[in-house]
Amino acid sequence: MNATLVELKDVGKNFLGADGSARAVLSGVDFALREGEIVALLGPSGSGKSTMLRIMAGLITADCGEVLYRGMPLYGPADGISMVFQSFALFPWLTVQKNVELGLESKGVPERERGERAQAAIDLIGLSGFEGALPRELSGGMRQRVGIARALVVQPEVLLMDEAFSALDVLTGERLREDIMELWETKALSTKAMLVVSHNIEEAVVMADRVLIFGADPGRIREELPVRLSRPRDVESAQVRALVDSVYELMTAGSIRHGRVTDKEIKLRLGDRLPAAESSRMEAIVELLADEPFRGRADLPMLAEESGLDDKELLDVTTALTLLGFAHLDGGDIILTPLGRDFAQSDQAQRKEIFGRQLLENVPLVAYMRHGLDQDPSGDLPEQMFLKLLSYTLPESEAEAALRVAVEWGRYADLFAYNYNTGVIHLPDAAEAAEE
Question: Can you give the residue ranges of every domain in the chain?
């Protein structure tokens, strides 16, 4: 077996909630990244994947457990580990050349050597001729190439990529991914191992030797799938499609209802995350499922292709539909329930009534908001009240995201209305209901 480069042993990480209590973001994470392999990490948003990468990069510390680099404890950034961020993270006032040189400058590398190594990294990643350009003069794909060149210029043994292609359009992301894989296969990189966080299942199967499925609340590795296919991999081959199906099944197992929907299913809690699925998108998927060629049942990868949704969007919609009782899962297939079929066949007014009933029964946050409005004499409440409640169990950004989803779902069902200027949630009057 190849040597282990980075190892996590029973690693945990907590963040403080608004009330000062600790919230577990990671718990009991055991992982080893070995020489010669690419590992892909998939999982829901907010499950702690990026936190795990930052711990491995030495950017933040674990609260418990051990983090080892080549068998030695890791207490901060290591020379042999580099990270590529989703947001490019470039300094806008620096040229491509100077952005790439930054890591070398921080390590005290002499100016002449910095220039030569930066130029080599720029050439390697396909940016020759753009050394003097500023980030604002580059396309998104080119800016990300700068970020990758900056990570590679320090000649890392380990390259960590945090959704490095997700901010790019599909074609640009595919081209950049193919270029990285060509550099890996031809051993043009000094890098000996890569860990890639992604929301794209196909991307993970095409790139990785192992696919890890992350669970949430708290984040931990829930499943592992080895990928024993030679490269390059044809995304349309039967073997790749079968693995994509397997990953879909693993990702939905345990996080979404499987089989029959029963009263024994685990229900949402008041402060849980909500899937970022718009009601209009849920409507469209139910209609698509109910119609030909699916007739109530669809293979998830096929549904993604037919609907044009990416993996994250489809999994969010699938989670929402199963949460509300409109669908359930059987392996990697999604199946409409009788209620889902009724919803598809109903007119708009009936759909809103059904949707609202399911929200009140299955989404405690929406039920709590409606109950509060019913009890308040004025019939309106500030959103900050609900954000404060959510902040006890969720980070600020996730609390805001959960409230946005709850408001959108509640407005669709005419359970309440929302004033975007004042941030006030209120009971809809008849005129507002008719207008919406």
Answer: 4-252, 358-435
Determine contact, residues 83/52, Cβ cutoff 8 Å: no
Contact indicator for 147, 155 with CB cutoff of 8 Å: no
69 Ramachandran zone, left/alpha/beta (phi>0; psi -120 to 50): beta
Q: Which overall architecture, per CATH, does domain 4-252 show?
A: 3-Layer(aba) Sandwich (3.40)
Residue 298 identity (one-letter amino acid):
A
Query: Which amino acid, residue 124?
Result: L
Query: Which 3 state secondary structure label does DSSP give 226?
Result: strand
User: Is the Cα torsion angle 420, 425, 426, 429 positive or negative in sign?
Assistant: positive
Q: What is the per-residue pLDDT for 431?
A: 39
Nearest to 216 by CA among 24, 372, 388, 74: 24
Could you tell me whether strands 380-382 and 424-426 are parallel, antiparallel, or unpaired per DSSP bridges? Answer: antiparallel
Q: Is the dihedral of CA 312, 317, 322, 324 positive or negative?
A: positive
Distance in angstroms (rounded) separating the CA atoms of residues 314 and 323: 14
Chain center to CA of 57: 19
Residues in the chain with pLDDT values less than 50? 255-266, 430-431, 433-436
CA distance to 202, 246, 253, 311, per residue, from 243 (Å): 9, 5, 15, 14
CB atoms within 10 A of CB 91: 11
Q: What are φ and ψ of residue 329, in 5° steps?
A: -115, 145
What is the residue whose two structure tokens read 């392996």? 331
Q: What's the CA gap between 20 and 289, in Å, rounded?
A: 45
Distances (CA, A) of 286 to 49, 103, 363, 426: 30, 50, 19, 29
Structure tokens at 191: 């890098």
The sheet with strand 327-330 has its strands ordered as 297-299, 333-336, 327-330
Q: pLDDT at position 262, please?
A: 36
Question: Rounded distance, CA 308 to CA 150, Å?
Answer: 34
Pairing of strands 37-42, 210-215: parallel
Note the pLDDT of residue 180: 85
Strand-pairing partners, residue 335, are 297, 328
Q: 396: burial class by Cβ within 10 Å (0-12, 13-18, 19+)?
A: exposed
Please list the helix, strand and coil fractions of the chain in percent, rounded to the nearest 5, in that order.
45, 20, 35
How many whole angstroms separate alpha carbon 13 and alpha carbon 28? 9
